[in-house]
């Protein structure tokens, strides 16, 4: 279930994990380590800003057609 806030949509750890093809617990560890920012809901669940997730995904991925040095 996604929510929206002023900064855009909020994604669940499972949704972020699917984008990065990792386990949701890995996403939670990234948040704990400060690698990705998260928001806590009143119930204590983590949510991630879609814009921040997409930015991190773009930084970590490369275009297959672009040769690396």
Please sum up the structure shown.
One of its GO terms (molecular function) is DNA binding. InterPro entries: BldC-like (IPR048048), DNA-bd_dom_put_sf (IPR009061), HTH_17 (IPR041657), SinI_DNA-bd (IPR010093). With 69 residues, the protein is of the alpha+beta class.
What's the arrangement of secondary structure elements?
Layout: E1 3-5, E2 8-11, H1 13-20, H2 24-33, E3 39-40, E4 46-49, H3 50-60
Antiparallel strand pairs: 1-2, 2-4, 3-4
Unreliable segments (pLDDT under 50, ≥5 consecutive)? none
Total DSSP helices: 3
CATH class: Mainly Alpha
What is the CATH topology assignment?
Multidrug-efflux Transporter Regulator, Chain: A, Domain 2
Mean pLDDT: 88
CATH architecture: Orthogonal Bundle
**How many independent structural domains?**
1
As a whole number of angstroms, the C-alpha radius of gyration is 13 Å
Q: What percentage of residues falls in helices of 4 or more residues? A: 40-55%
Give a description of the structure.
By secondary structure, the protein is of the alpha+beta class. The protein has a single domain (3-60), classed as Multidrug-efflux Transporter Regulator, Chain: A, Domain 2 (Orthogonal Bundle), CATH 1.10.1660.10. The chain has 3 helices and 4 strands, in the order ββααββα. It has helices at residues 13-20, 24-33, 50-60, and strands at residues 3-5, 8-11, 39-40, 46-49. A 4-stranded antiparallel beta sheet has the order 1-2-4-3. Helix 1 (13-20) crosses helix 2 (24-33). The protein is elongated and about 45 Å long. The chain starts with a strand and ends in a 9-residue tail after the last helix. The model has no long low-confidence stretch (mean pLDDT 88). It comes from Amycolatopsis taiwanensis. One of its GO terms (molecular function) is DNA binding.
């Amino acid at each position: 279930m996604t929510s929206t806030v002023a900064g855009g949509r909020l994604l669940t750890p499972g949704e972020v994990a699917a984008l990065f093809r990792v386990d949701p617990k890995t996403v939670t560890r990234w948040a704990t380590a400060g690698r990705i920012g998260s928001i806590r809901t009143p119930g204590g669940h983590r949510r991630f800003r879609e814009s921040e997730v997409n930015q991190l995904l773009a930084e970590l991925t490369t275009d297959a057609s672009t040769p690396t040095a």
